[in-house]
Amino acid sequence: MKIKHASWLIVATALLGFTAAHGFDLKEEMKKKLDEVKQQAQPEATPAASPTPPAASAPSEQQSLLAGFSEKEEIAIGRQIAGNLLGATPLVKDEALQRYVNKVGRWVAAQSERPDLAWHFGVIESSDINAFAIPGGYVFVTRGLYQVLQSEAELAGVLAHEVAHVTKKHHLKILQQGKLLDLGAKALGKKIGEDEKIRGLIGSGAEILSRSLDKNAEHEADRMGVVLAARAGYDPFALPAVLQQIARVSKEDTAVSLLFKTHPHPDARLTQLAAAMGNRFDQVTGLTLATRLQPLQP
Amino acid sequence: MKRFFATICAVLLGAASVAWGAETGSMIKADELKAEPFRDAKALGKLATGDKIEILKREGAWYQVKSAKGAKGWVRMLNVRRGEAKKASATSTATGVANLASGRAGTGQVVATTGIRGLNEQELKSAQFNEAELKRAESFGVPAQEAQTFAQAGKLAARKVKYLKAPAESR
């Protein structure tokens, strides 16, 4: 209990540190919040004063602390990661392509739980076969992956997988579990600027994108991706078809080294998808729109 | 449930169908060879795990395949692994990616992407913030309304589909 309590103080502090960047007095807010957390963490000491049962109040506080960032904060974090990624590899210089990808992506995202997020999609100059989901609604597909695609439905399926990561806040959760605690400890000692805070949170550059999510998060994004694409009217088997294509690429091929390092092998993902889909989608078809897929200029 | 999906099918025109040239694959799970791409279509025979097949085309959940014995029919695409089962050597690796890249046209023409590199962990880690490029990326965003117009132009209609549960073994 004691250890748990102490870690909550750090989390609370870290969150406050973040809030302070938006114009609050850090020390004052921190003191206030710490007092609140102390009360929440020791409900059994003052049962009469607590309007809700202790068992219920503690987890809810826990949830609200861990649910963490406001949408504004999430976007600020996402902007920094997206800007860093684009610093490593720029967008493909093709405005028609970029607008096209945004239309497909936005339509798919409209089927998700976060239809109103300011979604941004893009194709980046990398020969790797990969795609990235960044908090706040930034999604990037590499040129190498785009080249594999044979229809708009396949593009939609890939984007839908990434949209699922964003709506489920998979990467944000990694940040909260890891760096945030360090930052909280640092914030106790000094006042730091917003940029520095975000940098402290996301680590160096876009390294968060080279980290693996839990494999169940990937399988979940696959399952959601299939459904989001189907909801958007596309062929639900387009994402599995892309995975089957990628499964054919040798593990030794450098084009897939980062993808295969950070994700379960496509064969494993397909096995999981097959188990989840069963025969539920046997007769569910959808459009492939192969001819509308915007060609990629060399 | 059945009626729900039947409705979806009825509403949809132009069902997904993707054709390839001859491509090999193998069964990763035993399945019936069906006369048509439907669950309750007549079974023409059985394919066992590991059986080699030739993939002719896809229609939604189904691959039209030709068995080693020459029987033609439909199996669920998720019971199939595409491509050769053997491990690729360094040379065939390059061909593998080239084949992927050329898949769309099917002409075998591959445009060289010399000068474009991949992304490794070190590059991601040392990446520097590029404000101009980020603003450019943001400038291409489209409002929801525009995306909807675009969907309508492609005859894409939104429909209700429930999320899938995790299969028992992974929970």
Taking strands numbered 1, 2, ... along the chain, how are they ordered across the largest sheet of chain B?
Answer: 6-5-4-1-7
Calculate the terminal CA-CA distance of chain B, rounded to whole Å.
24 Å
Average the pLDDT over all residues of chain A and give the rounded result: 80
Helical region count of chain B? 5
Which class best fits the helix and strand makeup of chain B? alpha+beta
Which stretches of chain B of 5+ consecutive residues score pLDDT under 50?
1-15, 85-114
Gap between N and C termini of chain A:
60 Å
Strand proportion of chain A, as a percent range, falls in under 5%
Question: What is the oligomeric state here?
Answer: heterodimer
Shape of chain B: extended
How many DSSP E strands of chain B? 7
Q: Catalogue the unreliable spans of chain A.
A: 1-66
Instruction: Characterize the main sheet of chain A.
Output: 3 strands, mixed
Description:
The complex is a heterodimer of chains A (298) and B (171). By secondary structure, chain A is mainly α. Chain A is 59% helix and 5% strand. Chain A has 14 helices and 3 strands. Chain A has a 3-stranded mixed sheet, with helices on both faces. Chain A is globular and about 55 Å long. The termini of chain A are far apart. By secondary structure, chain B is α+β, with helices and mostly antiparallel strands. Chain B contains 5 helices and 7 strands, in the order αβββββββαααα. Chain B has helices at 2-11, 90-102, 121-125, 131-139, 144-153; strands at 18-27, 31-34, 43-47, 52-59, 62-67, 72-76, 80-82. In chain B, the strands form 2 sheets. A 5-stranded antiparallel sheet of chain B has the order 6-5-4-1-7, with no helix packed on it. In chain B, strands 2-3 form a two-stranded antiparallel sheet. The longest helix of chain B is centred in the middle third of the chain and has 13 residues, at 90-102. Chain B is extended, with a radius of gyration of 22 Å. The two termini of chain B are 24 Å apart. At the A-B interface, helix 4, helix 5, strand 1, helix 6 and helix 11 of A face helix 1, strand 7, helix 2, helix 3 and helix 4 of B.
